[in-house]
Amino acid sequence: MAGDFRLFIKDILTIKAPKKSPLALRMIVLTFAMLCGIYICSICLKQISSRTNIGFLNVQVLQRPCEPHIIEPWEKLYVHYPLPQTFSRAECRCHPVRYFAILSTQRSGSGWFETLLNSHMNISSNGEIFSVKVRRSNISTIVETLDKVYNLDWLTSASKNECTAAVGLKWMLNQGLMQHHEEIVKYFNTKGVSAIFLFRRNLLRRMISILANSYDQDAKLLNGTHKSHVHSPHEAEILARYKPTINTTMLIPNLRQVEEMTAKALENFKSTRHITLYYEDIIKNQTKLIEVQDFLKVPRMDLKSRQVKIHKGSLSQQVENWDDIQKALSGTLYESFLHADYRM
């Protein structure tokens, strides 16, 4: 009996471990699975985000600047792909554009020459922009204006916009060009701007044209309006009726002054890529226009102008004091101006 009692007491004192609840185990497993799921989802989200960024980078690569066409190494400076702010070049975005400037003097045929260039479907020459004084007041305003022109953001009736292949302007030597020539030469050479010099050989004819044009600014012979250039033979005939009187005392000094100015311009801009043309040569030889198109690297086309020449024929019929002019120039370096003639 004593043994049985001890066994009974031992069973009472022995503490048995309780059985684990199945619900608790399930909760632990569920919690662990949720944590694993959250971790896996976070990794997936990071990968998706990374792939999205790569996609954006690929889009940016597609918008990179256009690759230059196959050109000579020396030409690379003169080939541009402008991104205008005022419009989109659309399908012409990767068509190269070349920059130019027509450098000339008043009444040297530059207006007529510019209309010829603008008759080309791929050339935009924006006129005498620096005739407005504020645009040439200092080098900063000059550069700002040039940047706008060459970025295709200077919109005029001559602008070809999207498919322009050559863009430029007409610039007279006395419109800040000579005053700031060092900075402008640097700009041309840095930006890859080609210069087209256009002068007249017969400076006497140029002088007659200047005097007649100056007179019409006040007289306004065409129904009270002044026109520097005309598009009908009738208008040209009316303007040609005026015959100026030339001051023979100042004739040779004036001719020499213009000659020296053009020579100085050629000297100042000799380091730029340039071509030199003369009004008379273009009239006599139309292949000169082909040379210009080749110089600008545009397709060759037949160029046209609606302008009508005002002063034609013999010089003796265009001035009042022809005898005095003959005496003043005979035996001088400028005597050839009395005889040089051409037809248009």
UniProtKB/TrEMBL annotation:
Coiled-coil intervals, chain numbering: none
Record carries keyword Transmembrane: yes
InterPro entries linked: Nod_factor_sulfotransferase (IPR052796), P-loop_NTPase (IPR027417)
Keywords: Membrane, Transmembrane, Transmembrane helix
TM region positions: 23-45
Name of the molecule in the record: Nodulation protein like
Organism of this sequence: Actinidia chinensis var. chinensis
